[in-house]
């Protein structure tokens, strides 16, 4: 899997300030997609969690939407960078977390609109 890093603007949910940053795509030890958010000072938030034994396509990941990440992942869904698959998985004490897909057409708003409409 080889996804390009993406420059983004987002609202820091701790400070409620607009911030510039980068979504960095990597992989966990077992090959699953790992997603981390960096701001101008360095690592800001880990947006994915790795669930042992859960099989996912290469472009999907379990989002971390709890604790300090509340409200972050949703911003990138709204921007068309991630697509909510409608599937969820229970993550320990954090409860149900969504499975998201990296959108390879995030820069093409018309194509993304058509994909969502299907």
Q: Which residues form runs of ≥5 with pLDDT under 50? A: 108-118
How many DSSP helices?
Answer: 2
What is the arithmetic mean of pLDDT? 87
Helix content: 10-25%
Largest sheet: 4 strands, antiparallel
How many separate structural domains? 1
Shape verdict: globular
**Total count of strands:** 8
The separation of the N and C termini measures 26 Å
User: How large is the radius of gyration?
Assistant: 14 Å
Order of helices and strands: EEEEEEHEEH
Multimeric organization: single chain
Strand order of the largest sheet: 1-2-3-4
**Per DSSP, what share of the residues sits in E-state strands of 2 or more residues?**
over 45%
Q: Could you please describe the fold and organization of this structure?
A:
The protein contains two helices and eight strands; from the N terminus they run ββββββαββα. It is mainly beta and 118 residues long. The protein has one domain. A four-stranded antiparallel sheet has the order 1-2-3-4, covered by helices on one side. The chain has a four-stranded antiparallel sheet with strand order 5-6-8-7, with helices on one face. A hairpin with a 5-residue loop joins β2 and β3. The longest helix has 9 residues, at 109-117. The two termini are 26 Å apart.
């Amino acid at each position: 899997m080889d996804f390009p890093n993406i420059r983004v603007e987002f609202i820091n949910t701790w400070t409620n300030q607009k911030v510039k940053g980068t979504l960095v795509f990597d992989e966990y030890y077992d090959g699953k997609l790992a997603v981390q958010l960096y701001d101008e000072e360095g690592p800001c938030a880990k947006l994915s969690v790795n669930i042992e034994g859960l099989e996912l396509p290469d472009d999907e990941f379990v989002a971390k939407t709890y604790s300090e990440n509340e409200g972050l992942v949703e911003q990138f869904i709204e921007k068309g960078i991630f697509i909510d698959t409608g599937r969820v998985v229970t993550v320990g004490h954090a409860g149900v977390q969504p499975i998201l897909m990296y959108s390879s057409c995030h820069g093409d708003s018309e194509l993304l609109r058509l994909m969502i409409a299907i």
